[in-house]
From TrEMBL:
InterPro entries cross-referenced by the UniProt entry: Cupredoxin, EfeO_Cupredoxin
Domain EfeO-type cupredoxin-like: 6-94
Listed name of the protein: EfeO-type cupredoxin-like domain-containing protein
UniProt organism field: Limosilactobacillus antri DSM 16041
Gene3D superfamilies named among the record's database cross-references: Cupredoxins - blue copper proteins (2.60.40.420)
Length: 95
């Protein structure tokens, strides 16, 4: 990865009244810094927490501010995430 590597950024809307995370699957290219931004809505419910078990990430969503999670892209892989109750699920694919 050189200094010309462009960052990648994608958004996921969080809405407990609309089946959870939209889109449910987000894809990033390997080798470029990647940011996944969670966009809160008026209907957060138990989705006020997002957990990436594999990344050791556990962040709060207060329903106001968007929250950014840095996704490692040094190798291909799939990172699953869920709400704090492991009820709603989403997926990040690096390839
Ligand atoms: Cu939940």
């Amino acid at each position: 990865m050189g200094i010309f590597a462009k960052e990648q950024s994608k958004k996921v809307v969080v809405n407990a009244a609309n089946h959870g995370y939209k889109p449910e699957v987000v894809t990033f290219k390997q080798g470029k810094p990647a940011q996944l931004k969670f966009i809160p809505s008026a209907n957060m419910g138990c989705m006020n927490e997002v957990v990436f078990k594999d990344l050791g990430v556990d962040v709060k969503l207060d329903g106001q501010k968007e929250v950014t999670v840095e996704i490692p892209t040094d190798q291909p892989g799939t990172y699953n995430y869920a709400c704090g109750m492991d009820m709603f699920h989403g997926k990040v694919v690096v390839k």
